[in-house]
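Pipeline run #58 for the internal structure catalog. This entry was flagged by the ingest filter as a single-chain record with no existing model, so it goes straight to prediction. Upstream metadata was stripped on purpose; only the residue string is passed forward. Reviewer on rotation: M.T. Logging verbosity set to normal.
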Amino acid sequence: MSAFPSFVAAAVHAAPVFLDKAATTRKAVALIREAATAGAELIAFPESFIPAFPVWAAIWAPIDNHEYFVRMAQESVLVDGPEIEAIRAEARRHGVFVSIGFSERSPVSVGGLWNSNIIVGDDGRILVHHRKLVPTYYEKLVWASGDGEGLKVASTRIGSIGALICGENTNPLARYSLMAQGEQIHISTWPALWPTRRPKTGGNFNNLAANRIRAAAHSFEAKAFGIVTAGFMDKPMRDFFVSRDETVAEILDDTPRAASFFVDPTGEQISDALQNEEGIVYAKIDLNACVEPKQFHDVVGYYNRFDIFDLSVRRTRHRPATFIEDHDAFPAEQNAKSDDRGAVSASSDLREEAERLGPILAVDG
C-alpha cells in the first residue's frame, strides 16, 4: 500500500506575450485550463512569465535600455492585483496547484521591481510568495534583491512543494533551507535564454547543460522530484529585438536555449525535454520513490552533523520603513500636565530603558 500520493504534474514551456501583462495572463489561464484538462494537478510556469524576462539587459548597454525598464515597470504586476487574482481563480476553478513566475511591482515604488514566484493552492490561496534573493548578473539592472520570507515549502495534499528561481538553484544554503522543510517536489524556473557572451567569441553560458546539472544535483541531494520549467523565445519576441537592432539576431539565435523536463529523486531525467517549441511536458510523480534513496544520504536526517553545522534562515519581509504609532497616548495638552500616574510611568520607562542600554552606553573613564 502506498504511503504517499502520486499525481500528474505539468511543466509549461511557453513564451509570454512579450511585455503585455494582460495578454500573458490570458495565455497563462488558457495553459492552466489545458494542463488541468489533461489531468495535471500541479502546473509550473517559467521564471518571470508575466510579463517577460528582460533579455535586453544582456544585449544592450544600460544607457540604451531606459525605455525598456519603464515598460517593464508598467507591465509588472502587484501580488494582489488582477493578474495574479486571475491565476488564483483558475487554480481554484480546476482544483489544481499552480507555480508561476512574474515580475512583481512594489506597492510603494513605481520603479521598484522583484523577480518573484508564487505557489497557489488548489483552493486559490497563495501558499508561498517568494522574491528572488539575488538578481543574477545583468538582472540587477532591472530587479531588486528579495528577502527570506518566501523560503518556504508548501505542505499540500499532493506533497511538500518548494520552488527557487533560476540562479538560486546554485545557492547551496537556499536549496538546503527547502530540503530542511521536507521538500518532496522542487520546482526550478528559468528564462528561455541567458546570453553572457557574443556566440562567435565562444564561452557563452550553456543554459541547457547548466540547468540539467543543477536540477539533477538538487533532486539527488534532496531525494525529491524536480520540475524544470523554462521560458521560450517565440518569433514575436525575437522580432521585437531585431527590429530595433538587427545585429542582435546572432546573439538571440545562437545562444543555447533552455529546456523543460522532469527528474526523479536520483537525478535521472524521467520525461521528454521540450526545448525548441512551445508546449507542456507531463510526468507521473509517485512520492513513494523519495523514500528508498533516503537510506543512502538523508542530509536533513541521519546523514548530517548538526553538532558541527548550523543554518539560521531569517524569514522576514523587507520593508522600507517601520511606522510606530501610539494610539493610546494622552492628548498633547494632557501630556503637559504634571500627572502623578504619568510621572511614575515616565520614570519607570526611563529606568527600564537605562538598564537596557547601560552595557551599550557605558564608557571607561
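catalog note: The chain has two domains: 6-295, 332-361.
catalog note: Residues 6-295 form a domain with the Nitrilase/N-carbamoyl-D-aminoacid amidohydrolase fold (CATH 3.60.110.10).
status: ready for reviewer M.T.
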